[in-house]
Design a protein that fits this description.
Elements: H1 3-33, H2 61-64, H3 75-87, H4 89-109, E1 115-126, E2 143-157, H5 162-228, H6 234-249, H7 251-268, H8 303-323, E3 329-340, E4 352-361, H9 369-435, H10 441-476, H11 480-497, H12 504-518
Antiparallel strand pairs: 1-2, 2-3, 3-4
Helix pairs in contact: 3-5, 3-11, 4-5, 5-6, 5-7, 5-8, 5-10, 5-11, 8-9, 9-10
């Protein structure tokens, strides 16, 4: 072995020992410093909770955790909610958004680990003859090839916790997107139930309007015969004709509203606008009881509150990531490969090459750029904090409003029911006294109008009772959202095994079966 070769070998060994020593020093140092993170650690803000609600009426935990819509006893409503949980477009968008944040979290967290890549180069070059003190001699070929295969590595030492804070922020953004999806489920189930109840209200009002028009048509035929016989005047005939046409004119607007309500409900189901099957009538829906035992702390399970808190945690972590920008960014870099001008000698010993180093980037003058990023992060945290506090206050208000509505609409329904009975008695007595000649027909018409308005208002109030319960369950949030999500998962698994979904024909069959059972 020549002296030059021995010297080269010694230099290579010395270089290798130096690199191993440097690596052995930096790696433990990096692992120790990895435990340091700038920025505040999250602590849940102290929130003043309500010890009890305005009324003693509360909702038990078991009711808040079950599929409450099944308590109405309408299989069509249950089926519509199942369809909406699978086919609604808003839920699909929310699910896709979760996948987006999963990818964002994975991409951010990957920066904690070494980044390794490979390069392969094959080039053909021609050198210029004007480089160097003398040009190429005539017997030297200016063309040459270059081949290289290498593996590159780069690892940023997260000494100040910048990447860990960004990963923390991304992780809680992922949790926030999951909470947002469940908030979408909460809103969807409540909207389907409310829309279906509104549809039953309109059905009942249309039934009342048609029954009133049919009754007045019969009266009109009788009055025409009386008028032709000279028993009544043309004035009385015109009065009953006017009332009949008024009843007929009330039907088309209700039919129009029913069609529009069906279209709106179909869109919630993720389908094109079209007719919606019905189950039980409004008066035959079962009214769940509101029992006692719900502490106000259970409201913290609401998806929108979870979403707001996760956004707050994420904003808190971003403060530390912004503050870490003031400090140097240190990365370990390395390269291992082979290079040669001859492909045949590419993987031989002399073609071996390696490099190892430490790359440091230090901010010296940024003209307030880093300070601006810190200020932005702190301002976003303040916005998230106030938004979280506001969301809690809104949640308590919604529960209070729903409890008031449940109590008062029930009282109103009882009063409206008594009004309908009184109006029906009023009409019967007015008709009897008119037949006996004691009063004019105007009082009979007034009694008819009173009964029609009372029945229509009663239907609206009865639906309002059910809607107030829907709003109460929505404002409570709770475990029923998890139950709805579980039902959705089962439905999706079933739809993948069997591609067919429940059709309107299936819903009509179920509705007909339910109506047949309800008939005496």
């Amino acid at each position: 072995m020549t002296p030059v070769t021995n010297q080269a070998t010694s230099l290579c060994q010395t270089d290798m020992r130096f690199r191993l020593t440097l690596l052995a020093f930096l790696l433990p140092l990096a692992l120790v410093l990895q435990g340091c993170m700038f920025g505040p650690n999250y602590r849940r803000p102290e929130i003043e909770t309500m010890e009890k609600y305005r009324f003693g009426e509360k909702v038990a935990r078991d009711i808040a955790d079950t599929a409450w819509w099944e308590q109405f006893g309408d299989p069509i409503l249950n089926e519509l909610i199942r369809i909406a949980l699978v086919e609604n477009k808003d839920i699909r968008i929310a699910t896709a958004r979760i996948e987006e944040f999963q990818g964002r979290y994975g991409a951010t967290r990957s920066e904690l680990f070494p980044q390794i890549g490979g390069n392969a180069v094959a080039e053909r070059h021609r050198s210029t003859s004007f480089i160097g003190p003398i040009g190429f001699l005539g017997n030297i070929d200016p063309y040459y090839s270059y081949y290289e295969v290498s593996i590159n590595a780069n690892w940023e030492l997260d000494i100040w916790g910048r990447i860990r804070r960004l990963s923390e922020a991304a992780r809680h953004q992922l949790f926030s997107s999951e909470a947002a999806r469940r908030a979408t489920i909460l809103t969807l189930v409540s909207s389907v139930a409310s829309s279906y109840i509104d549809l039953l209200i309109l059905d009942r009002q249309l039934e009342i309007a048609k029954a009133t028009a049919a009754t007045r048509r019969q009266m009109l035929e009788v009055f025409r015969m009386r008028y032709e016989g000279g028993v009544i005047s043309q004035l009385e005939l015109a009065q009953i004709e006017s009332q009949y046409e008024t009843a007929v004119a009330a039907i088309p607007p209700l039919e129009s509203r029913i069609g529009q309500q069906e279209n709106a409900l179909a869109v919630l189901l993720g389908r094109n606008p079209g007719p919606i099957a019905r189950g039980r009538e409004l008066a035959k829906l079962e009214l769940p009881m509101v029992s006692a035992g719900l502490p106000s702390e259970l409201l913290m399970r609401r998806p929108d509150l979870r979403e707001a808190e996760q956004n707050l945690i994420s904003a808190n972590a971003q403060i530390g990531a912004a503050r870490a920008l003031y400090f140097p960014r240190i990365s370990l870099t390395g390269m291992l490969g082979v290079a040669s001008t001859q492909l045949a000698t590419l993987f031989t010993g002399p073609a071996y090459m390696t490099a190892f180093g430490v790359l440091t980037s230090v901010p010296i003058f940024t003209a307030g750029g880093i300070a601006g990023q810190v200020k932005q992060a702190e301002a976003r945290h303040e916005q998230a904090l106030v938004g979280y506090q506001r969301a809690i206050q809104i949640a308590f208000r919604e529960v209070e409003d729903s409890l008031i509505a449940v109590q008062k609409t029930r009282a109103e329904l009882a009063a409206q029911t008594r009004r309908v009975e009184a109006s029906r008695t009023y009409l019967e007595m007015a008709q009897l006294r008119y037949d006996e000649g004691y009063i004019s027909f105007i009082e009979v018409l007034d009694a008819q109008r009173t009964l029609f308005e009372a029945q229509t208002t009663q239907a609206q109030t009865r639906g309002g009772v059910f809607n107030s319960l829907v709003n109460l369950y929505k404002s409570l949030g709770g475990g029923w959202v998890v139950e709805a999500d579980r039902i959705r998962g089962q439905m999706e698994a079933g739809s993948q095994e069997n591609k067919s979904t429940p059709t309107d024909g299936n819903l009509r069959d179920t509705a007909n079966h339910e109506r047949t059972k309800a008939e005496p």
